[in-house]
Amino acid sequence: MHIRTNPKLNKIFKPVIKFCEWLGVHHPILLARIRYFARFKKPLHLKNPKTLNEKILFLSLKTDTSLWTKCADKYEVRDYVKECGLEDILIPLVGVWEHATDIDFDKLPDEFVLKATHGSGDIKVVTDKTMLDIPKIVAEFEDDLKHQYGALESGHHYMRIHPRMIAEELIHNDPETAKISTSIIDYKIWCFNGKVHWLWACANRDEHTTEVMTYDTEWNAHPEYSIFENDYRHGEILPKPKNLERMIEVAEKLAKPFPCVRVDLYNIDGKIYFGELTFTSYGGLQDFYTDEFQLIAGSQIDLTGVKTIR
């Protein structure tokens, strides 16, 4: 959880948060080193990165991330997906607005998903519009739009995003998947140098937790690579998606320009939908993978020829 998403922590640690945000804007590498040491009790190696986390942070802090900005923007990324010839996987767009106060809720369907274009995980899933506390939601998102997301994790690609609001159609679980998961399964696909290496499936998600399992490209489960805890629980081994090969093909098309990206997809009754592209998963501080997996995944990311800007 990012500190800013917890109102109680925000109030208690507001001065610390403000200082860290200032560091994130003006001294991002220093902030990253502090956060990394605080999480793992060891220094961050950026001169010779080896682990998945280290290479994510190296790419974020030391290379040109201008394309990341477009692809992390929940509205602009739709154009990127279309440019990749994959318009058919986009969840239909309901609307886009500069401000939450611009939204005419009377014109929205009964079900939809509302989100800010620059955030991470801050979404509102609406299953019955008549039950909405509209003034509360508008106030929350207006506050969100004023916040410069990314500073706390030294994520300059997030800081460059133009904050807006979008709404997409709400997609539902299919009957077969509903037998094994109460939520839509989120396939988070790790791509290194344009090739899929690992799939991290999240199922039975609720407001606070989800069940997870790591798979290789042959859909062999690797629970030994995960550190399971309250947020990420040990999940059952899921059936192999019937169109796994197509999912891999889609992910690799989207990942082609990037040394490292996580492509998030949904698969509803054989229909693939785009979720998002994630470049700094957990702010480059993923503590739910084992040291072994961190080194294995890191070794699969080839940084040869990557140009640095710092």
Question: How is the topology of this model organized?
Answer:
Layout: H1 7-12, H2 14-26, H3 28-40, H4 52-62, H5 66-72, H6 77-83, E1 93-97, E2 112-116, E3 123-126, H7 134-146, H8 156-159, E4 165-168, H9 175-178, E5 186-192, E6 195-203, E7 210-215, E8 232-234, H10 244-255, E9 260-268, E10 271-278, H11 291-299
Parallel strand pairs: 7-8
Antiparallel strand pairs: 1-4, 2-3, 2-4, 5-6, 5-9, 6-7, 9-10
Overview of this structure, please?
By secondary structure, the protein is α+β, with helices and mostly antiparallel strands. The chain has two domains: 3-44 and 92-168, no CATH class; 45-90 and 173-304, D-amino Acid Aminotransferase, Chain A, domain 1, CATH 3.30.470. Helices cover 32% and strands 19% of the residues. The chain contains eleven helices and ten strands. It has helices at 7-12, 14-26, 28-40, 52-62, 66-72, 77-83, 134-146, 156-159, 175-178, 244-255, 291-299, and strands spanning 93-97, 112-116, 123-126, 165-168, 186-192, 195-203, 210-215, 232-234, 260-268, 271-278. Strands 8-7-6-5-9-10 form a six-stranded mixed β-sheet, with helices on both faces. A four-stranded antiparallel β-sheet has the order 1-4-2-3, with helices on one face. The longest helix is centred in the first third of the chain and has 13 residues, at 14-26. The radius of gyration is 19 Å and the shape is globular. The protein starts with 6 loop residues before the first helix and ends in an 11-residue tail after the last helix. Mean pLDDT is 94; it is low at 1-5.
